[in-house]
Amino acid sequence: MSSSVRTTTLPDGTKVPVLGLGTWKMGEDRRGRADEVAALRLGIDLGMTLIDTAEMYADGGAEEVVHEAIGGRREEVFLVSKVLPSNASRAGVIRACELSLTRLGTDHIELYLLHWRGSVPLAETVAAFETLKSQGKILGWGVSNFDMDDMEELASVPGGEFVQTNQVLYNLSSRGVDYDLLPRSARDGIPVMAYSPVGQGDLTRDKRLTAIGERHRATAAQIALAWTLRRSHVIAIPKAASLGHVGDNRAAADIILSAADIAELDRLFAPPSRKQPLDMI
Hints:
single chain, two-stranded antiparallel ribbon, NAD(P)_OxRdtase_dom_sf, alpha/beta, Aldo/keto reductase, globular, eight-stranded parallel beta sheet, oxidoreductase activity, 10 helices
């Protein structure tokens, strides 16, 4: 296993690894802090240099864990953080970003996302994102938990064409976006960032995946993650708080599922045949 991870390209031309590091639920208990930091640092060593976090996670605690993990290695890392919809006003976005920058211990965030839709007009949030870009505090921006109609509305907003990604729930058990959102995103050249790519633990114990894993000398979780990564424009950001889990995730990126594997998984986890409401957790 090399330290090189396959990349995909954002609309602005930036290349990012398709396998990154999630931090949801990190920073909630200081007793696990050292393990969380060590896991993130190993992930960076293994080429998983995209780290996703958010002001919401542990009320900023996850960003502080990231700060510690990237100490002395900031230039190696592509940081993604997210602003809550309650902070998505023009002034609120600026203030929230500055607080995230402080917690992260950096002067810029590579990609800053709106965590989900709220009551603030998209035009106002996008204007704030563009202000942050002009100030050099973020290099780009995106959205999270946006469905097709949300993305279409975003495209009609001044500056909306500068969106770099849409982060959504996507895994074998939650694949509604396969119907329309993923194909449209691929057509538009906007990579999708998949959170919870191995579910909430259910897929890691799925015996159907274990059987497929035996053919690849892989675990059920690794098969689920390899499936999520089968598309060239999907970035997966699984959370791993142990060294072993990080290593397993990295190895999953090297698994090449055959056409027969994909067909079997489609039989076991049927793709959507019609439009479905966007899944969120």
